[in-house]
Design goal:
- The complex is a heterodimer of chains A (329) and B (329).
- Chain A is an alpha/beta fold and 329 residues long.
- Helix content of chain A is 32%, strand content 23%.
- Chain B has a domain of 226 residues: P-loop containing nucleotide triphosphate hydrolases (Rossmann fold).
- In chain B, the strands form two sheets. In chain B, strands 6-7-8-3-9-10-12-11 form an eight-stranded mixed sheet, with helices on both faces. In chain B, strands 2-1-4-5 form a four-stranded antiparallel sheet.
- Classes of the chains: A alpha/beta (329), B alpha/beta (329).
Chain lengths: 329, 329
């Protein structure tokens, strides 16, 4: 196993992921979904996690929750290793960590009333007093901008996608968690609704003192809410750094490529001509060495032979690249 | 507009019967596009942009009622008999849909589908059709085209499938290509490649193209003209640089403002558009955007604004309280 890589060390991270490996069996082959990823998230911080489909960002989120058990590595939440926990201990821990998914309509049970859906986590965690539950549901619905009187008795199909996402956020907040994993929370929503939900997440973060792992494929969306951003490619971490710094001077060629590929809503910005070459290879047989080398303009023999380690290329900015675009060569 | 229109949509309305009453999906739209030009149609889900494209292609659901005229190359498609329409579609009038998995036939090879289209419209013999298919696949950037002919759609990645769909659409040198959210299902780096490919082929073939999208970023650098749709109507229409620099319609302004910008500082609250689009089965008396518009006044609630000419040529907007001319957003 590799040594834990150096990371923007925060003295007291709420979440620390160490050399996490997640694999899925596929016939007689193995999908290398997450390969030795290490990350820290400080208390009160929002870490954005970006990458294209299949890069392992959602799997990483699920492995943090122990919804998918990692093959190896540790997930330390508030100092305790979730990978070593089972049954009740894990369940108690999970109250402090919640998930919000991409498709808000599919993540709500279509036959249950909104009031019951949001009260469910309270029932499971043993809040027996029905009056108290009702009060908590009432408060949290108000907090996410829905009128409790109008909403609790209705079914999910009566709401739009944006409203369903508000309901999902309310359900995630009702247990007063410390940490929320948002997995593509706005990618199914229209532009005008997306901004509402992003603003709501920021408000809720301040109001409930949350720490967020914000997973998305849209860099501009991630930048809007994140203190730091981590970039994943084919199961590995390419780069981590403070949001503005990372976007202003990306060190990893893949980060640079992602930034260039964003369509800018300004007719004076001519789209870069074919910045991206080829497509990501299969995570069943990832390339040797640096996994990005098959699409990288800077790749050479060393990238083929040697897996690049994350190293500091600028203050608090780390990149796993033999030929970074900035920093000490 | 320069030159005579290749396609002109004249007073097109589409009504769909639903259990909740009549739904006016497209509400008296006039649009035109000249040969070799590109037009972007932008709007959020439910704004009628897809129904409009289906109205042009005469591919509306059976129950839909279409009024108005769709003049293409001198003939009204609405009144054309099925046989003549079938000859036109695929030949002079081609389409690329959002999801290449559903537009390609899953049980036929790529080769069969390409060759079928070529033989149907161009009367090529099988050898010539096969040669042409290989050329087309190579032109859209598919490696090892000869082998790909034998493959089925599920054996290709999403980006590759969309390239195949584009190859089929381009196969008979259409005069007009309608691309309906051609990159929405794809990753950013692949999206850039596909948009580049469409732009390159459009220029090379001097073909007219309509790009339908929810993303203002997609149309900004790649179209000559943009039409913004809201609640079934075109609410603003202008040459692309004019639309972005001198927008007059508050909805266009709000839509652009709601997009997270890559150069904005993290944690900047987004100017979200409050509320959501109106229920299309309950049309409003006044301007459809008025309930969400920060500039709306009494007239906006009781009267529907028509499209009016702005000072700059080719620029039209439907608003009683337009933004000041010449003020950049």
């Amino acid at each position: 196993m590799m040594q834990p890589v150096s990371q923007p060390a925060s003295a007291d991270p709420l979440l620390r992921v160490e050399n996490l490996v997640v694999e899925y069996p596929l016939g007689n082959k193995t999908v290398h979904a997450v390969s030795s990823v290490s990350l820290d998230i400080a208390r009160g911080e929002t870490l954005g996690l970006v990458g294209e489909s299949g890069c392992g960002k959602s799997t990483l989120g699920r492995a943090v929750m122990q919804l998918r058990r990692p093959v190896s590595g540790k997930v330390l939440f508030d100092g305790q290793d979730l990978t070593a926990m089972q049954g009740d201990t894990l369940r108690r821990m999970r109250r402090r960590v919640q998930l919000i998914f991409q498709d808000p309509i599919a993540s709500l049970n279509p036959r249950r009333r909104i009031g019951d859906i949001i009260a469910e986590p309270l029932v499971i965690s043993g809040v027996k007093d029905a009056k108290k539950r009702e009060q908590l549901v009432h408060d949290v619905l108000g907090a996410v901008g829905l009128d409790p009187q109008l909403v609790t008795g209705r079914l999910p199909h009566e709401f739009s996608g944006g409203q369903c996402q508000r309901i999902c956020i309310a359900r995630a907040l009702v247990l007063n968690p410390e940490f929320i994993i948002c997995d593509e929370p706005v990618s199914a929503l229209d532009v005008s609704i997306r901004a509402q939900i992003l603003n709501l997440l920021e408000e809720m973060k301040a109001r409930y003192g949350l720490t967020l792992l914000f997973i998305a494929h849209d860099l501009a969306v991630v930048k809007a809410v994140s203190d730091r951003v981590a970039v994943m490619y084919l199961g590995r971490l390419c780069e981590v750094g403070p949001s503005e710094q990372l976007f202003a001077q990306p060190a990893h060629p893949y980060t640079a490529l992602l930034i260039e590929a964003i369509p800018v809503p300004d007719p004076d910005v001519r789209p870069a001509e074919s910045v991206a070459v080829g497509e990501p290879p299969s995570p069943i047989a990832p390339p040797s060495g640096c996994r990005f080398r098959t699409r990288c303009p800077r790749a050479d023999q060393r990238c083929r032979d040697e897996v690049p380690e994350l190293r500091e290329v600028a203050p608090a900015q780390f990149a796993a690249c033999h030929h970074p675009l900035i920093g000490p060569a | 507009m320069t030159g005579p229109a290749l396609l002109s949509v004249e007073g097109v309305a589409v009504d769909l019967p639903t259990p909740r009453g009549n739904l006016r999906a497209v509400d008296h739209v006039d649009l035109s596009i000249g040969a070799g030009r590109t037009l972007g149609i932008v709007g959020e889900s439910g704004c009628g942009k897809t129904m409009l494209s289906r109205a042009i292609l005469q591919l509306l659901p059976k129950k839909a009622k279409l009024t108005g005229r769709v003049m293409f190359d001198g003939q009204d498609l609405v009144r054309l008999d099925r046989e003549r329409l079938r000859k036109l579609r695929g030949r002079s009038l081609a389409v690329v849909f959002q999801d290449p998995m559903t537009s390609l036939n899953p049980v036929l090879t790529i080769g069969t589908q390409l060759i079928e289209t070529l033989q149907e419209h161009l009367e090529l013999d099988s050898v010539a059709a096969k040669m042409r298919s290989i050329e087309l696949l190579a032109a859209v950037g598919i490696p090892a085209p000869e082998q790909r002919l034998m493959q089925y759609p599920h054996q290709l990645s999403g980006g590759m499938r969309q390239r195949v769909a584009i190859a089929i659409a381009l196969s008979c040198e259409p005069q007009l290509l309608i691309a309906d959210e051609p990159t929405t299902a794809l990753d950013v780096t692949i999206q850039a490649q596909i948009l580049d490919l469409l732009a390159r082929e459009q220029r090379r073939r001097h073909m007219a193209m309509i790009i339908i999208t929810h993303d203002l970023g997609v149309v900004a650098g790649r179209t000559d003209e943009v039409a913004v749709m809201y609640a079934g109507r075109v609410v603003e229409r202008a040459p692309t640089p004019d639309l972005f620099k001198r927008m007059r319609m508050p909805y266009t302004e709000a839509l652009l403002a709601a997009i997270p910008k890559i150069d904005a500082k993290p944690h900047t609250p987004l100017p979200a558009i409050s509320g959501r689009p109106p229920d299309p089965t309950r049309p409003l008396r006044g301007c459809s955007f008025s309930p969400r518009c920060k500039y709306a006044w009494a007239q906006c609630l009781i009267e529907k604004p028509g499209l009016e000419d702005a000072d700059s040529p080719g620029h039209q907007y439907a608003c009683f309280r337009p933004l000041a001319a010449g003020v950049p957003a």
